[in-house]
Specification:
single chain, 396 residues, mainly beta, Immunoglobulin-like, eight-stranded antiparallel β-sheet, 6 helices, 13% helix
């Protein structure tokens, strides 16, 4: 297995984690995106590596000076972002990753107003006499005895995440409210006149700033005596390059300051042998998926008989069900070329795909997890290096 270098990133200021909407025009409002795209972390880390190695940035940007692990902007090297997750670090140094709710997990309240967690179940609706236009043979159905409004704004602890992946019942203690992790603040910006090099009259806009909670901050503004004993930041994992163990980064819009520090992390491995024996499993995206066929993962093809077959790097199976949230659009700013990156529609993190008739060896499942959902002849090496199309296997 390729070794992964992990680091913990702590912001030193509020962050501007810009989404994909234009802003800056008079009266515009720029929203922040939590969690940000993995390319945000990849760009910050690569910039730090270039500066630390005293690389001529202009020559690198013009593809005239390749870096041993970063390659060039046109031809990336071995550097690959494999993990980028929200996390919190406790006083004893322990770091706990936090994961957004996957698409097959629904939170609601029961009649006693207590939180309840329910899983979507792949179901054949034709047997119940229900007609539908879903392209796959099974539909993800919520088996609920009564109608409930689903809740948002919760995150899973690392333990709760692994409970969900293994198919075990999730303890409510492993749900973390969004309000215990960050606050949003509105900041007013002023447009500049490039000729006069001064503020332009009447050009005010608003940006949403993200303030990740740090140790000692009140968890609930209404109860200021209840404070958190952790710092909220990000965990990053990288293969193919050595990351600095300490120092600062320029992170997000406006290059706000963040601190990078070393950490030890040994990720839990799925039960590959059990999945091979049961011949079925779930694929859960841990980063946005840039797929050639939209919501369909790379490696899945529709046959003339109407089946959706997964055939990728020694892994074969039949896609029978999927829970994919509303698609998103990823773009960004290309620093080397000084222009926007091509906008691409993506399947969001947390999307779930159920695979039946799974035919693979445990080592093949491990290999495809390490590589991500990319075709071997993919013509998008930059997005691969930035950490898109990452996933994990889960029990079904």
């Amino acid at each position: 297995m390729i070794p992964t270098d992990y680091r913990f990133i702590t912001p030193l200021d509020v962050l501007f984690l810009r989404g994909n909407k234009l802003f800056g025009a008079p009266g515009s409002y720029g929203e922040s995106l939590i969690p940000p795209w993995p390319s945000v972390a990849a760009g910050a880390l690569r910039s730090r590596i270039l500066v630390e190695d005293k690389v001529d940035l202009q020559a690198f940007a013009e593809n005239r000076l390749p870096h041993p692990s970063l390659g060039t902007p046109m031809d990336p090297g071995s550097f690959t972002l494999t993990a980028f997750h929200l996390a919190r670090r406790y006083m004893d140094g322990r770091v706990e990753m936090l994961m957004p709710l996957p698409a097959d997990l629904v939170i609601s309240r029961d009649l006693q107003e207590a939180l309840q967690l329910q899983r979507l179940v792949p179901t054949a609706l034709e047997s119940a006499g229900i007609q539908h236009a879903f392209p796959l043979p099974l539909c993800p159905v919520l088996p609920a005895p009564q109608r409930n409004k689903s809740l948002s704004g919760y995150w899973l602890t690392e333990t709760g995440w692994h409970q969900h992946l293994s198919g075990a019942r999730i303890d409510h203690a492993h749900l973390v409210p969004q309000g215990h992790l960050w606050r949003l603040e509105d900041r007013v910006g002023i447009g500049l006149d490039p000729q006069q090099r001064s503020a332009a009259e009447g050009k005010l806009f608003t940006m949403q700033a993200v303030s990740l909670l740090q140790r000692g901050h009140a968890l609930d503004p209404l109860h200021p005596t209840v404070v958190g004993d952790y710092d909220v930041g990000f965990v990053v994992g990288v293969t193919g390059a050595t990351l600095p163990r300490s120092g600062t980064l320029r992170l997000g819009g406006d290059g706000r300051g963040a601190q990078i520090s070393g950490m030890e992390h040994t990720p839990s491995e799925p039960d590959y042998a059990g999945m091979v024996q049961q011949k079925r499993a779930r694929i859960v995206l841990t980063s946005p998926g840039i797929f050639d066929a939209g919501w369909l993962p790379n490696g899945v093809r529709k046959t003339d008989q109407g089946d959706y077959i997964l055939a990728l790097e020694g892994v074969r199976g039949r896609l029978v069900c999927a829970a994919v949230s509303r698609s998103e659009v990823v773009s960004g700013w290309d620093v080397a070329r000084r222009q926007p990156k091509t906008a691409q529609r993506v399947a969001p993190s947390g999307s779930v795909y159920w695979i039946d008739d799974l035919q693979a060896q445990p080592e093949a499942l491990r290999k495809i997890t390490t590589a991500g959902l990319w075709d071997p002849d993919s013509d998008n090496p930059s997005r691969r290096a930035e950490g898109f199309n990452r996933f994990t296997w889960a029990a079904w």
